[in-house]
């Protein structure tokens, strides 16, 4: 697999030829979309992380893919990419979650920075504290889309002391660009959890430590650091 400076890559992965489009979220951290044209296959929820030894961790949760790649010529060196210098004060970050089904298998995620909560909806719209930030369709009519996100709409959150100086304006610019890259919602991904991790990476430069729904493992709702706003929604 060979990547160009524009983030596009292609090459053989085993017996199949793969095309990848990657976008930098933070230095050494990328979101990715992959296609195998010959098989009419694609995955749009990729996460690429350059580890300390130069290994590239490749994750596509929607397809159960977790691989580790190394360059033929040796260790890769992440190339820092310039981002706008945040202009606001440091604000705390929380990973918000809400139970979706009665069995507690599926959980909706959102990111709270300061007092502002950002989440995605099923029509691939990002909704913030003032309503819709950006949507791929005009058919966004939910109450939350009109009134904006609020803490009481969630069952709990995890706060591990994360912070960011990104302003709401900078976050909303990222949200607009993210929806443009992911215009179609897929319950397997890209979904609310894909968005939450990508925004978290943008804000902090690190991956979330929790598994997604498609990983078939427990997420933040099982964390010892979970704070419950609605204890009746605990899965156990």
Number of strands: 15
Main sheet attributes: strand count, strand direction, barrel closure: 8 strands, antiparallel
Quaternary arrangement of the chains shown?
single chain
End-to-end CA span: 44 Å
Helix content: 10-25%
Sequence of secondary-structure elements: EEEEEEEEEEEEHEEHHE
Classify the secondary structure makeup into a structural class: mainly beta
What sort of overall outline do the alpha carbons produce when their principal axes are compared? globular
C-alpha Rg, in Å?
Answer: 18 Å
Number of helices: 3
Residue share in β-strands: 35-45%
Write down the overall mean pLDDT. 90
Low-confidence sequence ranges: 77-82
Blueprint of the fold:
Layout: E1 2-3, E2 8-13, E3 16-26, E4 29-36, E5 41-50, E6 56-60, E7 65-69, E8 91-99, E9 107-113, E10 116-121, E11 125-128, E12 131-135, H1 143-147, E13 156-158, E14 163-164, H2 168-181, H3 192-204, E15 226-228
Antiparallel strand pairs: 1-2, 2-3, 3-4, 4-5, 5-6, 6-7, 8-9, 8-13, 8-14, 9-10, 10-11, 11-12, 13-15
Structure description:
The protein is mainly beta. 14% of the residues lie in helices and 36% in strands. It contains three helices and 15 strands. It has helices at 143-147, 168-181, 192-204; strands at 2-3, 8-13, 16-26, 29-36, 41-50, 56-60, 65-69, 91-99, 107-113, 116-121, 125-128, 131-135, 156-158, 163-164, 226-228. Strands 8, 9, 10, 11, 12, 13, 14 and 15 form an eight-stranded antiparallel sheet that branches. A hairpin with a 7-residue loop joins strand 8 and strand 9. Helix 2 (168-181) crosses helix 3 (192-204). It starts with a strand and ends in an 8-residue tail after the last strand. Residues 77-82 have low confidence and may be disordered.
């Amino acid at each position: 697999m060979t990547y160009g400076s524009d983030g596009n890559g292609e090459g053989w992965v085993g017996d199949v030829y793969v095309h990848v489009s990657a976008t930098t979220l933070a230095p050494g951290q990328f979101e990715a979309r992959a296609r195998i044209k010959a098989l009419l296959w694609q995955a749009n929820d990729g996460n690429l992380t350059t580890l300390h030894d130069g290994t590239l961790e490749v994750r596509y949760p929607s397809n159960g893919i977790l691989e580790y790649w190394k360059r033929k010529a040796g260790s890769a060196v992440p190339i820092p990419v310039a981002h706008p210098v945040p202009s606001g004060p440091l604000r705390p970050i929380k990973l918000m979650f809400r139970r979706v089904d009665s069995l507690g298998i599926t959980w909706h995620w959102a990111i709270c920075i300061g007092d502002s909560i950002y989440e995605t909806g099923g029509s691939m719209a990002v909704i913030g504290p003032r309503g819709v930030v950006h949507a791929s369709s005009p058919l966004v009519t939910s109450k939350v889309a009109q009134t904006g996100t609020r803490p009481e709409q969630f069952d709990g959150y995890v706060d591990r002391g994360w912070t960011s100086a990104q302003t709401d304006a900078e976050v909303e610019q990222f949200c607009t660009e993210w929806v443009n890259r992911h215009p179609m919602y897929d319950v397997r991904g890209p979904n609310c959890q894909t968005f939450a991790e990508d925004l978290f990476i943008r804000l902090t430069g690190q991956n979330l430590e929790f598994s997604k729904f498609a990983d078939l493992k427990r997420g933040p709702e099982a964390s010892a650091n979970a704070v419950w706003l609605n204890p009746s929604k605990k899965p156990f």
